[in-house]
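name: query_chain
kind: protein
chains: 1
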Amino acid sequence: MDQEPNNPSIARPIGDLISEALFPPLTESKPTSPAEKLPDKLLERLWLKMTELYGHRWTSSFGASADPASAWASALRGINGRQIAHGLNMLVALTYKWPPSAPEFRGLCLNVQPEAIGLPDIESAFHQALARRYRHLVVKAAAAATGLYDLHRGELTDESLRKRFAFQYLTMARRYANGEPLDAPVVCALEHDLGRSIRELADEFAERKMRERLERQGLVDVTAVQARNQLLDSLRIHREVRAV
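structure:
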């Protein structure tokens, strides 16, 4: 499928503008050595931005001021200003209501931004997935990994579904950028999965696959009699209905 053109005239996400304004001197800097901690100035700016985003939720968990000896400074070693700006954009895109852990934020910093590699942004891709009009193979792969049945039934206002798709889409974008196969299974632990047992997740997965199979066979929203008639038609078996 053709890639969606990267139109520079499209308005950029507000998260990009905020992050670039916050980290202007560091976006072109060289990454720190893997053995070093995050530079103090960069850590302070990150703290300021997290406080702006989450307020008391951040300060009550990690403190009101940056601590160079904190786990955050160690966990983010080797991360530069551009990558931190990208991580902040991902927090906005994925609508995190609570601040992430340091390792989780590091993963967001290292994730690939779809627009940077010529892919549609998350919102546009979500629209395509709901409409089942895929303008790029990455969007189609993310839709399949999210669940075609759920997307077919979903709406733009379904925040849980949007988060699930966004996670899959960012994963597929990273694979695409690295030349990795898009059809490999994705292990996810999203908000809606927390606190649920493996059996519950497995049951949900099996039910979703069954619904997708029914949809492919045209058996969604049909009664038992209608399903039976469709089966007979597919087998070219025609029975007369006798009047009582």
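note: The mean pLDDT is 74.
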